[in-house]
TrEMBL record:
Family, as annotated: Belongs to the heme-copper respiratory oxidase family.
Organism: Philodina plena
PROSITE patterns from the UniProt entry: COX1 (PS50855)
Compartment annotation: Mitochondrion inner membrane
TM region positions: 44-67, 87-109, 129-150, 157-174
GO molecular function: cytochrome-c oxidase activity; heme binding; metal ion binding
Function, as annotated: Component of the cytochrome c oxidase, the last enzyme in the mitochondrial electron transport chain which drives oxidative phosphorylation. The respiratory chain contains 3 multisubunit complexes succinate dehydrogenase (complex II, CII), ubiquinol-cytochrome c oxidoreductase (cytochrome b-c1 complex, complex III, CIII) and cytochrome c oxidase (complex IV, CIV), that cooperate to transfer electrons derived from NADH and succinate to molecular oxygen, creating an electrochemical gradient over the inner membrane that drives transmembrane transport and the ATP synthase.
Pathway: Energy metabolism; oxidative phosphorylation
Membrane topology term: Multi-pass membrane protein
Protein's name according to its UniProt entry: Cytochrome c oxidase subunit 1
CC terms in the record's Gene Ontology section: mitochondrial inner membrane
PANTHER family the record matches: CYTOCHROME C OXIDASE SUBUNIT 1
Length: 175
């Protein structure tokens, strides 16, 4: 349930940023007067929708109750690992939000690319916070992936299922 709540909240935030971006594209300079802020909003929108909307809802929200149901197992292999995986998401979201407030913001998404993330291309710690946010979100996804794969393997072994009988959702999580 917590994954759905943070996913829906991030979805609303991302949709509102999307509306601002679309309005700005319709009449350039009408809402956002600074290009750096606009670029930071586009970058934040991309990261927000991928790491804080799609991943928590698809993997965390549906996976927590749908995967055990489809595998016919009682619970995820490591429920505490799943809990830890969730609580990294708000921390990553906090760091992403703070990156917009530090200096001039992270700017375009290309400045988050490691070869371009040195002090020549940005003016402070905003890029560092954005990159750290992505790393924390990535650790959360990796922990969730480990839990999914372990649950799939545990369910397959305990119920002697062959891989041909696994559902598409389970295959997607394994891949």
């Amino acid at each position: 349930t917590l994954y759905f709540i943070i996913g829906v909240w991030s979805g609303f935030l991302g949709a509102s940023i999307s509306l601002i971006i679309r309005t700005e594209l319709g009449m350039v300079g009408s809402i956002i007067m600074d290009e750096q802020i606009y670029n930071s909003m586009v970058t934040a929108h991309a990261f927000l929708m991928i790491f804080f909307f799609v991943m928590p809802v698809a993997v965390g929200g549906f996976g927590n109750w749908l995967l055990p149901l489809m595998m016919n197992v009682m619970d995820m292999a490591f429920p505490r690992l799943n809990n830890l995986s969730f609580w990294l998401v708000p921390v990553a979201l906090l760091f992403m939000s703070l990156s917009l407030l530090v200096g001039l913001g992270p700017g375009t998404g290309w400045t988050v690319y490691p070869p371009l993330s040195n002090s020549v291309y940005h003016f402070g710690g905003s890029i560092d916070l954005a990159i750290f946010s992505l790393h924390v979100a990535g650790v959360s996804s990796i922990l969730g992936g480990i839990n999914f794969i372990t649950t799939c393997m545990k369910g397959k072994i305990s119920y002697v299922l062959s891989f041909e009988y696994l559902t598409l959702f389970v295959w997607a999580m394994i891949v």
